[in-house]
Amino acid sequence: MAELLLIGIAQLATPRAGPQRGAAMREITVLKGAALLIRDGRIAWVGPERDAPAAARVRDLGGRAVTPALVDPHTHAVWAGDRLADFEARAAGVGYETLLARGGGIRSTVRATAEARVEALVTLARPRLRALRGSGAATVEVKSGYGLTPEAELRSLRAIRALRAAFELRPTLLVHVPPTEGREAYLQGVCEVLIPEVAREGLAEAVDVFCEREAFSVEESRALLTAAQRAGLKVKLHADQFHALGGVELACELGALSVDHLEASGPAQIAALAASETVATLLPGVTLHLGLPAAPGRELIDAGACVAVGTDLNPGSSPLFSAQLALALAVRLNRLTPAEALTACTVNAAHALGLADRGALAPGQRADLLVLEGPAWLELPYTLGRNPVREVYTALTP
Ligand code: NIG
Ligand code: FE
C-alpha cells in the first residue's frame, strides 16, 4: 500500500467534488494548517494537521499552499508548422476570418499537419504538453482537427494515443473546416466512415465540430454530432466564436458535454446554457490573442450556468501554454472571482470531459494536486507571467 501524508500546508483551497453551477462556484473551502493523506493514488483524508492520521511516509511542504491540479478541457496541442505570418498579418490589421477565407489560417496549419508522420507529431506535441503540465494541468483534453482527410485525422489521433503513455490525455476528434471542394461527400465520409472507425478503434472519446460561418453550419454540425452519438461517442461544440448561429442551442439540445468559445453569445444563449446540463467553456487566451470580445463568464455564472475555462492551446487563436494563465485571465477578462476561476479550472473542467473523479481535494478523488511556491492559494489566480506552481502531484506520482 503506497501511503503519503502531506503536512506543512499553509492553505489548502478546494471546491466541492462534482460539477458546480452558479453561486456554488464561489463556495470553495480554504483550510489553514492542513494535512492531506494520499493512499494508492487517491486522496484518503483531508483535514487540520493536528488531527492527521499516522502514515507510512510523511512529507513536510514547509508552509506552502495546495490546490487541486487543474484540468485543461480544450486544446489543439497536435499541429505542425507555425502561424507566425498570420500573427504578423493580424497585427497589421488583417482579420482572423479573412485569413481563413483566403485559404490561410487553420488551412495553412492543415497543409503543414496533414503530411506529418505520427512520430513527428508526437515529437512536436510533447514539449507543449510538458508546458501545460508544468503550469498545473494534470489532465488535458487534446483534439485532432488539423488533418482534414480521414487518414490524416487518424494520424493525429494515433499521435495523441502514443502521448497518453506519458500524459493523462482525453482525445477528441475535431471536425474543423470543410474541404474547398466536395463538401457533401466529405461530410458523408466523416459521418459514415471516419466517426465509426474512430469509435471502433477507441481513438477518441468525443467528437467536436467548429460551427461558424467559415466552417460548418448548424445543420451540418447536427449531422456530425448525431453520427457521433450513434457511434456511442460524446459530443461537444466550438460555437459563437464570431457569430451566434445557433450552435449553443444545438449543443444544449443534444446534451453536449460542453460548448466552447461563446465570445459572441448574448442573453438567449446564456439562458439556454443556464437551463441545460452542458458546460459553458471559456477560452480567455482567444480574447487576448485575437482581441475578440470576452465571453460573458460573469453573466453565465449569475444566470446559474456551469462554467469551465481552458487554454484552447493552438497556433492560430491561442498560443497559450499555461493552464494557470488561462485561470488568471478568466478573472481579468471574463470577470470570474478567483474562487469561481478555481472551480472552473478543476471540477467543472473535469465535468466538461465527463470526469467526476478529479478536481477536488476530497476523499476518493484522484490525488492530482498542486503545491504552490508560496503560502497563499490566491497566488494561482493572481500571478501573471511567472509560474506560481512549484510541483504537480498526479495520481501516477510514486
Ligand atoms: O478553438 N476556432 C476554431 N478552432 C481553433 C483555432 C484553430 C486555429 O486557428 O488554428 C479555436 O480557436
Ligand atoms: Fe478550439
Task: Walk me through the structure.
4-imidazolone-5-propanoate binds at residues 83, 146, 176, 241, 317. Belongs to the metallo-dependent hydrolases superfamily. HutI family. InterPro entries: Amidohydro-rel, HutI, Metal-dep_hydrolase_composite, Metal_Hydrolase. The chain has two domains: 3-69 and 360-393, Urease, subunit C, domain 1 (Roll), CATH 2.30.40.10; 71-352, Alpha-Beta Barrel (TIM Barrel). Helices cover 36% and strands 23% of the residues. It has helices at residues 84-91, 96-101, 106-114, 118-134, 150-163, 183-201, 218-230, 247-254, 267-274, 284-290, 297-303, 323-333, 338-345, 347-351, 379-382, and strands at residues 3-14, 29-39, 42-48, 58-68, 70-72, 137-143, 168-175, 206-210, 234-239, 258-261, 279-282, 307-309, 369-372, 389-393. The strands form two sheets. Strands 5-6-7-8-9-10-11-12 form an eight-stranded parallel sheet. Helix 9 (267-274) links the parallel strand 10 and strand 11. Residues 76, 105-106, 109, 210, 238, 241, 286, 312, 314-317 line the site of N-(iminomethyl)-L-glutamic acid.
Number of strands: 14
Number of domains: 2
Question: What level of helicity do the residues show?
Answer: 25-40%
Mean pLDDT, rounded to whole units?
Answer: 97
Enumerate the distinct ligands: N-(iminomethyl)-L-glutamic acid, fe (iii) ion
Inertia-based shape: globular
Beta content comes to 15-25%
List the uncertain runs. Answer: none
- Looking at CATH, which topology of the largest domain would you report? TIM Barrel
Radius of gyration: 21 Å
What's the CATH architecture of the largest domain? Alpha-Beta Barrel
